[in-house]
UniProtKB/TrEMBL annotation:
<dbReference type="GO" id="GO:0071949">
    <property type="term" value="F:FAD binding"/>
</dbReference>
<dbReference type="InterPro" id="IPR036188">
    <property type="entry name" value="FAD/NAD-bd_sf"/>
</dbReference>
<protein>
    <submittedName>
        <fullName>2-polyprenyl-6-methoxyphenol hydroxylase-like FAD-dependent oxidoreductase</fullName>
    </submittedName>
</protein>
<keyword id="KW-0503">Monooxygenase</keyword>
<keyword id="KW-0560">Oxidoreductase</keyword>
<dbReference type="InterPro" id="IPR002938">
    <property type="entry name" value="FAD-bd"/>
</dbReference>
<feature type="domain" description="FAD-binding">
    <location>
        <begin position="20"/>
        <end position="367"/>
    </location>
</feature>
<dbReference type="Pfam" id="PF01494">
    <property type="entry name" value="FAD_binding_3"/>
</dbReference>
<dbReference type="GO" id="GO:0004497">
    <property type="term" value="F:monooxygenase activity"/>
</dbReference>
<dbReference type="InterPro" id="IPR050493">
    <property type="entry name" value="FAD-dep_Monooxygenase_BioMet"/>
</dbReference>
Length: 423
């Protein structure tokens, strides 16, 4: 359960830990690693820029729907919340692909394809954060990391002096200074803090020049089916979660000024076939009150770890949503980072962080590359090839399209490989 705890109180609790750890960002990656570290008996200090828990988990403006692949199952098991996860989510089995006119081209048993490796389930971001924080989860809200010193890029580790500010959304900003052995930066794709560490700049990034509106439609009978419609100048996706369906309606950035309602009606006019779900999806976008607009950008950092800092989740490698793998990789990375720290001493910390990056970065970048390749097909296909795209997808299996992702599932991350030897 997320509770708002003052910074000083969290820091006092961490005072007797073998490693004093600051986690910046209480999103999926930050909460995952903080809760895993707490299961180890540590007391990481977790700070979050959002004003309060309600702002952080608001699915209308700070959240969205997720389809989580099986690499997350071990995280829920380690936290002892697998049943909470199952209760808060729905199983996904079928994937229906529609042509640019709305016609159903094919339906695949995606859940059955992935069943060998675990569960494939749909959940809202807000519900996921609630599940991950089922155990006590202290957070200092309305707080940002302002500065840090001593986070060198060498092999040596020493205390890092940090300055944080509480009350960042008000005039009552209060500075706090403290020393930590490790700073985990997990404050998302638009990280305010990764520039404070060596290597925090971008190695590469992709701007699709597309974005889209997120809305919610009522649940229907097909609770186990995802629908995607790859159109001519638009994309429509419908993703079931518990008791509702998450809708994403995307198009080029140049269409954003049109507004969600008018763009939804424009898309509707292009469709010759309108299934009940697609109809409901477009209606949901049209009727949504100030729907959240999600800009489709990604990010890849040139370096994750120094001797006393590490980037995690979207702060290290932010994903496009095209492969449906970003949240899962954030959670897997959190598990691997927690494992690398489980028995690490202060002296072993630089090596532990290097070992984590060496083991996990290739996996993350493999998944990210797949999402970039799918984005090329989804967003940048010449207009005259839109019809041919549908024909091509009828010939290419989902298993082939997701080959690199399935390869990651076949060869899962192994925490034992990054654990430091006990001394």
């Amino acid at each position: 359960m997320i509770t708002w705890v003052p910074f000083e109180q969290q820091f006092d609790s961490a005072g007797s830990d073998d490693l004093r750890i600051l986690v910046v960002g209480a999103g999926i990656a930050g909460i995952s690693v903080a809760q895993l570290l707490r299961r180890q008996g540590r007391h990481p200090v977790l700070i979050e820029r959002s004003r309060d828990p309600e702002t952080m988990t608001d699915d209308d403006h700070a959240g969205y729907m997720l389809a989580l692949m099986p690499m997350v199952d071990s995280v829920f098991d380690d936290l002892g919340v697998r049943e909470d996860y199952r209760e808060a989510s729905v199983p996904i089995d079928r994937y229906a692909l529609h042509s640019h006119t709305g016609k159903t081209l094919r339906s695949d048993r995606l859940g059955a394809l992935l069943a060998e490796y675990g569960e494939y389930r749909g959940i809202s971001r807000g519900e996921l954060i609630t599940v991950l924080s089922s155990a006590p989860c202290p957070v200092t809200f309305d707080t940002s990391l302002v500065a840090l010193s001593g986070a060198g890029d060498g092999a040596e580790s020493g205390p890092t002096r940090v300055q944080v500010a509480t009350g960042v959304h008000s005039r009552a900003r209060v500075p706090h200074e403290a020393e930590f052995d490790l700073v985990i930066i997990a404050d998302g794709l638009g990280s305010h803090t990764r520039q404070l560490v060596p290597g925090g700049g971008s190695e590469s990034s992709v701007d699709t020049a597309w974005g889209g509106w997120v809305a919610w439609a009522p649940a229907d009978a097909d609770t186990d089916q995802v629908d995607e419609l790859w159109g001519d100048g638009f994309f429509l996706g419908a993703y079931p979660v518990k008791d509702r369906i998450g809708i994403f309606l995307g198009g080029p950035d140049s269409r954003e000024p049109l507004g969600a309602r008018r763009f939804a009606e424009e898309v509707r006019s292009k469709l010759a076939t309108l299934t009940p779900r697609i109809d409901a999806a477009l209606t949901a976008v049209s009727e949504a009150d100030d729907p959240y607009f999600w800009a489709l950008r990604d990010f890849r950092s040139s370096q994750w770890a120094t001797g006393s800092t590490v980037l995690l989740g979207d702060a290290a490698a932010g994903f496009l949503p095209t492969a449906g793998i970003g949240a899962g990789m954030s959670m897997e990375s959190a598990r691997m980072l927690a494992a690398s720290l489980e028995t690490a001493s202060r002296r072993q910390l630089p090596g532990a962080l290097r070992g984590f990056e060496t083991a996990q970065r290739p996996r993350v970048e493999q998944a990210q590359t797949t999402s970039r390749q799918l984005a090329e097909v989804m967003f940048h296909l010449p207009r005259f090839l839109v019809g041919l795209r549908g024909m091509l997808f009828c010939l290419v299996s989902v298993k082939t399209a997701l080959g690199p992702i399935i390869d990651l599932l076949k060869h899962p991350a192994r925490p034992d490989e990054v654990r430091s030897p006990e001394v």
